[in-house]
Amino acid sequence: MPPQKFDLEDRLVDFASSVVELTEALPNTRAGNHFAGQLLRSGTSPAPNYGEAQAAESRRDFVHKPGICLKELRESRIWLRIVQRRTMLKASVVEPVLRETEELIRIFKTSIATTKRNETKH
Is the whole model's pTM more than 0.85, yes or no? Predict the structure, then answer.
């Protein structure tokens, strides 16, 4: 079997889809609805922002958009941790999404650091 091609945009779309599924499973309570709304916004934002970065109009814009993705992923991580701490869903539902959030954060941190490092060379 050939190695799977890494496509960050597909991975971000899958992440957004997982966030939608998770938020739909949250309880219909004041807290559940609040967490769902916040997580839905932050968790679905990185994919379209990454898409915008691919069509950046300037180098500055190209650097800025991944920074927005990183901020939104970090916000998502906090909301997921709150949901996890409140045991609003089973760990088997929250933990895979939280793990993917952590991996995506690492990818964006590395990518941003590399871009900034390369920027100083030019």
Answer: yes
